Amino acid sequence: MVAVAVGETVHAFSGGGSKGTITVGAKGFAENEILASLYQIALQENGYDAKFVDNLDGDVLHSAINSGKIDFYPEYTNTGVVMVLKHDPIFDPEKAYQYVKEQYKKKYNIVWLNQSAINDTYGFVITKKVADQYGISTISQLCENSPKLRLAQMYDWNADPAIGEALDKTYGKFKFADVKTYNAGLVYPVLKEGKADALVAQTTDPQLEDTSTYVLLKDDKKVWPPYYLTPIIRQSTLDKYPGVEGIINSVTKEVSGSDILELNRQVMIDKKEFQDVARKFYDSHIKK
Fold first, then answer.
1. pTM of the shown model
2. Rounded distance, CA 188 to CA 258, Å?
């Protein structure tokens, strides 16, 4: 039995007219919390008593949705492929989505709803100045030019097989002129200040909004699999509340990849509360 009380539960809508109670889960970081909060708001607006359970890690969330402690949460396609189903990464986005959709329904009676446009995977970022100077737009070109460039990293990337080993196998050995490790909050400023030229980042990092300073390189040999953010829900919840699927899917389609960079910035950089950010976006972009 999973004790979901380890997260923060919000009873944000209640009353005699409620169509029913639905519990939304979320992982404890900005984009997941924002999207889950958007779903919660949409359900509230449509008459459901939507509870919110936050700060749960992947194992806890999977156990919680299986046991019925929560009804749904936003998951990532290759997290489902690799961490839950114990399958090798699937690099084609549609094949990854279809695989988790079929296997979760078969094994857990859990439904993957419509996939969002948000892909949170690894990515190489360089400065616009360096991109223009050396004509770099792909990871292959970065590898070729790596002896001239300096890498900023948050930890030893070679110790992570998903980064160092995967890159070596796919692109060949990177031979950066200098490699320094920085606190996570410093890597982007280090690039901006010209103290480094490249870093391995996440493709939904809010700093990537600043395209005049940073360039996200094309993964031309597809070293990293896609991690598309997608709501997953218990089949029993859909059976009980048939209208919920349409409500959730209507939110998902309104949040683009560029939207999540802006929303992440408001939470991660501007330090706004994710609930407030979600509410404002819902009112301006989704509410009918």
1. 0.90
2. 18
